[in-house]
Amino acid sequence: MTQEIEIEFKNLLTKEEYDLILNDYFTDLLDFYTQKNVYYDTASYELKGAKCALRIRLKDNMAEFTLKSPHEGHHKELNIPLSQKEAEDLISSQSISIPIQISAFLKADYQLDIDHVLKIAELTTKRIEKDYKECLIVLDKSWYSNTVDYELEVEAPSIALGKEVFSSILNQYDIPERETLNKIARARNAIKDVE
């Protein structure tokens, strides 16, 4: 199990904005990969209420169980590696047991006594990323429900540097800073819109 603080800045993009950034920043590197996120919560959305998100992510030959929780305006991630088979077996069920480490963390930090969760949404992302000025620039094209969206993410070692790089990319293309929900919220909301 690993823990890390995730400092990232996100902005939804139009397809045209996505293409501009892709063509300017990634011309030397067109190494996309696909990842699938499956999101979980209780029937009464206790994790959402605590501003936490629980997912299983599959990409290439790796998989992990991740709990994201709020931390000083960003997120703390608790990651537990899974084999591809373990992840696929879990994803095939509508209700699953969560790892004891995550359950213990939720109980200690949020007074949530959760051991089983339900699948609430799925999202598939085609991602490309590049190191840039000590940050990681990420472009995502994501599919969920009947929706396709495009997103810029900048992951950074500090808030100041992340904000500087993020703002400079947006300003370079006159892209407005848009309120951008996280992927779990967008996927969950898209399901509500379809229903």
From TrEMBL:
This is Uncharacterized protein YjbK. It comes from Alkalibacterium olivapovliticus. Transmembrane segments: none annotated. Residues 4-194 form the CYTH domain. The lineage of its organism: Bacteria, Bacillati, Bacillota, Bacilli, Lactobacillales. Coiled coil: none annotated. It comes from the Bacteria. InterPro entries: CYTH-like_dom_sf, CYTH_domain, Uncharacterised_YjbK.
